[in-house]
Amino acid sequence: MPAALIQHPFMSQPALAECHAKAMIDAMLAFELALAEVQEARGAVPEGASAEMRRALESHPFDVETIAAGIASGGNAAIPFVKQGRAALPNELKRYFHQGATSQDVVDSALMLLLQPRLVALDALLVRCRAAAIELMQAHENTPMVGRTLMQQALPITFGVKVAHWALGLEQARRRLAGIALPVQFGGAVGVHSGWDDLGLDFMDALAERLGLAAPVLPWHTDRQPIHALGTALDAVAGAAEKLALDVALLTQTELGEVAEPTAPGMGESSSMPHKRNPVRCALIRGATRQVHGHASVLLNATAQPLERGLGEWHAEWAPLIDSALLLEGALEQAAVLLEGLEVYPEAMQRNLAATGGGIMAEPVSRLLAPVLGQDVAQGLSAEAAEAARLAGQPYAQVLHERLLAEHGEVAGRVERAELERASDPALYLGSSRQQVQRAVHWLAHE
């Protein structure tokens, strides 16, 4: 697969450099050596044996290609890895390597170790996004813009409250992800520490502490709730990042021009149209996050696994888990840059508010007129005046006032032109936008 051209560009490059075959082997080795140390501390391995194992294996050149080839016959990387590790040890130590463990213990624990720094990196990126969003929210707390429903102009909001919703989505997902515990896996052949009796759970808890992972209640060979929780938490972040990218991309459209992505040499250029400034960061975010959604479906469909060991379901989890983290990290790198450098054009927002000649304010105007004309007449007149103002390119309040005088002389003196102009001013009809921004900032700043 040409991964360097069609997959890796959507991923975090630093993360990609840390998640490779050797890193997986190092993580599996970390599990095995920690297990030997835990067992030695409890008298199940001769004194000094774990240190000898470490000296022999930490410098041992594991053959990645042979391990990869061995997966075809064993079904996972742990089996050929254990064979190589055992072969590299002196005869008197071989029996103590991988003692009491099964291949799933090795692979699951290694994956948790690989994912641990990725979750730290994701949290740091989300904190960056939060800080940039708060700055944008406060800068545009009172910047009016068109609020759109079903892709059409609806009523005014502020750009600050729009950013607040992006920030809340990302932060809610961050807090959810931060609550995820990555558990060690250790249960032996059928998950009950066969042959170790009351030492089994003790080994498991001590192993978790030594590796810096969470201690589960029980081994979780076919209890995939930890993976379900992790997969859905990653997908929640992906959904929040995609919402941000989708909104920004829509607002960058030439006809709207309310925001623009940060500039960078060559960023957003077209292969054939020199005038274009494509929202490429948004495209990269959406391309990555939509893949995360797909991976989440694989993980969710693998939740129910048979009996004491999955048959394909477990195996299907490995790539989606790692790929989701790498893709999400790549998406959040772009999201942080996007929020930190987003170009905002209040004048374009004002222009778009006036695109209907003020007709966007037909709803508050009808509320003003309803006590005088009745609800149905007020709504009809407001809508007709909005369309007439748009077609004539005249101010909405002027057209409406002229129609009132011409068609409803009985209201003369009861509704003044100044009242219509106030009711037609988007800046005076922003609801709780400003208060929502302030409330969101407070929530974001206080975990």
What does this structure look like?
This protein has helices at about 5, 15-20, 20-40, 50-60, 65-75, 80-85, 90-95, 105-140, 160-180, 200-210, 225-250, 280-300, 315-340, 345-355, 360-375, 375-390, 395-405, 415-425, 435-445; strands at about 145-150, 150-160, 260, 345. The model has no long low-confidence stretch (mean pLDDT about 95). It is elongated, with a radius of gyration of 30 Å. It has two domains: about 5-350, Fumarase/aspartase (Central domain) (Fumarase C, Chain A, domain 2, Up-down Bundle), CATH 1.20.200.10; about 360-425. It is about 65% helix and about 5% strand. It is mainly alpha-helical and about 450 residues long.
Mean pLDDT: 93
- Total number of helical segments? 19
What is the CATH third-level topology name of the largest domain?
A: Fumarase C, Chain A, domain 2
Radius of gyration: 30 Å
**CATH C-level category of the largest domain:** Mainly Alpha
Q: Which architecture of the largest domain per CATH?
A: Up-down Bundle
For the report, how would you describe the main beta sheet? 2 strands, antiparallel
In short, what is this structure?
This protein folds into 2 domains: about 5-350, Fumarase C, Chain A, domain 2 (Up-down Bundle), CATH 1.20.200; about 360-425. It has 19 helices and 4 strands.
Q: How is this fold's topology laid out?
A:
Elements lengths: L2 H4 L6 H6 L2 H21 L7 H10 L5 H11 L3 H10 L3 H4 L8 H37 L4 E6 L2 E7 H20 L20 H13 L13 H27 L7 E2 L19 H22 L11 H29 L1 E2 L1 H8 L8 H12 L1 H18 L3 H12 L9 H7 L9 H13 L2
Antiparallel strand pairs: 1-2, 3-4
Helix pairs in contact: 3-4, 3-8, 3-10, 5-6, 8-9, 8-13, 8-19, 9-11, 9-19, 11-12, 11-13, 12-13, 15-16, 16-17
Enzyme class: isomerase
Keywords: Isomerase
Pfam families: Lyase_1
